[in-house]
Amino acid sequence: MTPEEFRAHAHRFVDWMADYMAEVESYPVRAQVKPGEIAAKLPTAPPEAAEPMERIFDDFQRDVLPGITHWQHPNFFAYFPANSSPPSVLAEMLTATLGAQCMLWQTSPAATEMETRVLDWLRQMTGMPEGFTGVIQDSASGAILCAILTAREKATGWGVNTEGLKAHPPLAVYTSEQTHSATEKNVKIAGLGLSSFRKIPVDAAYRLRPEALAEAIEADVARGIKPICVVASIGGTGVGAVDPLRAIGEICRRHDVFLHVDAAWAGSALVCPEHRWMFDGIEYVDSLVFNPHKWLLTNFDCSAHFVRDPDALIRTFSIMPEFLKSREGDTVIDYRDWSVPLGRRFRALKLWFVIRSYGVEGLRALIRKHVALAAEFAGWVEVSDDFEVMAPPSLALVNFRYHPPGVEDAAELDRLNEALITRINDDGRIYLTQNRVDGAYVIRFSVGQTTTEHRHVEGAWQVIREIAAGL
Ligand SMILES: Cc1ncc(COP(=O)(O)O)c(C=O)c1O
User: From CA 173, how far away is CA 197, in angstroms rounded?
Assistant: First the structure.
């Protein structure tokens, strides 16, 4: 493709992109295809001969687009958001064009130095104290893995890295029953085995119970098991629970246990000072992750991982083959040793674009709008005769269920809500996902799309009631 051909295609694509952003509301939110339907349209063998871009793009629109769930749809209320924004997409185009591989300072000094700078912007924006250093990871899961591995190495004097686990006493990792499954997965990946994994019970507000944590740690110590890491949550996935960092931190300090905080979703809300109570006890925290790719207008992937002791992280991962040595040595940051993959995209650029385009004030306004919309939705549920809120709403997340008068059988209520969510998502106007709260099947309503306005939330409430009435 010549530069002139590229220019022509790119112009056409950008027109399509702008139209898509303007018209995304006209698509069903969740893809309405059956398993295998898209695969049936894709040739089973690669083309031997080159194909024209016009044909590829036509096929994208005709065959691929129907199989897309529209995460940027203003009626996307499922999971947690993965919101994006025009400035982020523009930056992503530049990143792709540069095609830089930013593993070392030398392989793109601007990428490294901008990453350091914008992560410190994020630290300041969220009210995190000085003394935390940031790095961009691909995912919150990746950051949690880094935390568990660092904790494992610190607790064993960097011994597992050299001798393996067998040379050490059994280790244990603690988290709450409400913590995202990423922690459990990472305990497996870290080679600790699920027998090392403790799910600590929660209180009535679904927060990890510190006294239960202390008991579990003490019981392990008494049995010769070494506690290495606690993963606390700020905004757990199910109901958005916020663990008490101070009480947990004091226990960790007492037992010399690494404390990681998973704030994947809720961390973005900390740009608003009124939500910073969630940070009470931050001085005890060793590392924390939140995802600007969830709720801060920065398209996937971009996880902000903050560590108090970068040397411990680097020492956990560091490896120095001849081909990766550079003459700058210790005078610069080489982010290659801060995470599992060696190769790194220039992800800081989109954060730089987003933060500058919206300003911190603009980002605060967005979070406040979403939180207010969710509160209004929860209010409608509360006063309704047929629906009930099932957990205290957290930021922009509401857990609720359909509960028509006269239906009291738990299994019947579960069945009704399962049927309701299936019909809602098959209908396509809005998209919701499910959860269990104290055993009951409930519906999660998560507000967080860049273009979601009052009318969308109001419309969603109408769709929910309309479909429930037809069950
Ligand atoms: C609280 C929490 N932690 C971790 C994750 C995993 O995030 P990632 O996809 O960035 O690994 C999620 C995903 O929704 C989450 O909600």
Answer: 5
How open is the CA angle 378-379-384, to the nearest 5 degrees? 100
* Nearest CA-CA partner of 417 in 464, 371, 373, 353: 464
Contact by Cβ (8 Å): 285, 261: yes
CATH 3.50.50.60 for domain 100-345: no
Q: Which residue ranges make up each domain of the chain?
A: 100-345
pLDDT digits (tens, 9 = 90+) for 30-67: 999 999 999 999 999 999 999 999 999 999 999 999 99
The rounded mean pLDDT for the chain is 96
> Residue with structure tokens 């924004």?
85
CA of 180 to the centre of ligand 1 (A): 7
Strands 258-262 and 287-290, how do they pair?
parallel
Give the span between the Cα atoms of 346 and 162, in whole angstroms: 32
User: Residues lining ligand 1, CB < 6 A?
Assistant: 80, 139-141, 180, 182, 233, 236-237, 262, 264-265, 291, 303
CA distance 113 to 117: 6
Q: Which of 76, 144, 180, 296 to mutate to test the pocket of ligand 1 (most atoms within 8 A of CB)?
A: 180
Q: What are phi and psi of 320, to 5 degrees?
A: -130, 70
pTM as predicted: 0.95
Strand order in the sheet with 171-176: 133-137, 303-307, 287-290, 258-262, 226-233, 171-176, 197-200
Q: Is 386 exposed, middle or buried (0-12, 13-18, 19+ CB in 10 A)?
A: middle
Amino acid at 26: S
